[in-house]
Amino acid sequence: MRNAVTFVLDGLDRLAPLFRDVTVLVVGGNHGENRIGGSHTTRSDNDDCAVFEHAARAAERDRRLAHVRFSIADAEPAKTLDVHGWILGTTHGHVFARGSGSTGQKAYRWYSGQATDHLPAGDCDLVLTHHYHHFAARDWDGCFWVQTPAMDGGSPHFTDETGQGADPGMLSWVMSPEMRAVDVQIV
Prior knowledge:
This protein has helices spanning 2-15, 47-60, 103-116, 156-162, and strands at 22-26, 35-36, 39-40, 68-72, 78-83, 86-91, 126-129, 136-139, 144-147, 171-174, 182-186. By secondary structure, it is α/β, with parallel strands linked by helices. The strands form four sheets. Strands 5-6-7-9-8 form a five-stranded mixed sheet, with helices on one face. Strands 1-4 form a two-stranded parallel ribbon. A two-stranded antiparallel sheet has the order 2-3. The chain is globular and about 50 Å long.
């Protein structure tokens, strides 16, 4: 956890000065879920979120990061944020129900369920998901879905399963009042 907090703060030190306002949007993933005897403790007990909670406390003490805000999930499977009038949402992706279909099909079923149940993620104009270690994107008319790639050298599991490559990298895009996502690229 110490290394992860260090990496988060290093990223903020490098990137936050480039922007007037910064919001760090965080949801827990399956690797951070704490378990006892193989069973989950609670939805709030996730080290993925704890890393950012620690980074937020450290950032509060740094005047250079006074414009950085953190929106960290507690028990929610997804978090949303208004960006220029567009609702951006994120979830890790391990929350998708198991079953057949592509990553995009699983994501769409999850998103549709969120919308049907009038949950915050169901209002998203752009849904960002993780977990599957490869880039993918689909325009669902009312919502644009983007699956982030891995930053760890790609995903041999994805290649073994699908026969497709998975380039690693950091996903970047721009949101403006006119466009919910433009200039989507992996850097």
